[in-house]
Amino acid sequence: MITLLGSTAARLHLRLFPRLRTPLLSFLLFSIFQRYRSTKTGKLASHGFASMAAMSSFPPQRYHYFLVLDFEATCDKPQIHPQEIIEFPILKLNGRTMEIESTFHMYVQPVVHPQLTPFCTELTGIIQAMVDGQPSLQQVLERVDEWMAKEGLLDPTVKSIFVTCGDWDLKVMLPGQCQYLGLPVADYFKQWINLKKAYSFAMTSWPKNGLLDMNKGLNLQHIGRPHSGIDDCKNIANIMKTLAHRGFIFKQTSKPF
């Protein structure tokens, strides 16, 4: 509409004022048109049309929200057993805009192997002081549930699903530790999207090195440091947004428990 108005104004200028094509008159007419255009653009933005246009580049997704999750856990070489979650981050991603709306992030104190190994600290960047005195897994899970409720994610009319880089987080790590500690696993943790599978569907190649390969395949800059839970979540969100821009629609990849 704005372009049409601009071309119409130009034609009227030429037809009605053929002898007044002075630089001053042209400047005045152009200034009036620019002011009119900025006013109309402001009105469109105030009514939400600008944001609607920005969202039009994304195909409609099946979920209102994606909950991006990436655990870090105690580890060593050879591997210690049982492993325990020490970083619990979640990003709430809007399914229409693919933008981050809220963040849950807590460190967790391990109880079976309370002392982090040098290998674990070097891999994850998590030092002993970051987990000492932190809540137990049971307490963190309670706070996750409170956060889910506060964010409206427990409303049965709101469709949300977790997204992980692989199946390990929600198929192995969380249920395994909960079983060891005698804790229940909330139903919302029992279905998820494996980003590796989604990426392979979209790009027809399997990312052997996980996030590093996916960022490389999409020409994205890696965010933060590898194996930082919160940074990995940011990379997952960025990859999802890029795939959505390309028209990909995310679907659940896990089988119901």
TrEMBL record:
Cofactor entry: Mg(2+)
Domain Exonuclease: 65-249
GO molecular function annotations of the record: 3'-5'-RNA exonuclease activity; metal ion binding; nucleic acid binding
Transmembrane segments: none
InterPro entries in the cross-refs: 3-5_Exoribonuclease (IPR051274), ERI-1_3'hExo-like (IPR047201), Ribonucl_H (IPR013520), RNaseH-like_sf (IPR012337), RNaseH_sf (IPR036397)
Keywords from the UniProt entry: Exonuclease, Hydrolase, Magnesium, Metal-binding, Nuclease
Cross-referenced Pfam families: RNase_T (PF00929)
This protein's record includes keyword rRNA-binding: no
Quaternary assembly: Interacts with PRNP.
Protein name: ERI1 exoribonuclease 3
Species in which this protein is naturally found: Naja naja (Indian cobra)
Gene: ERI3
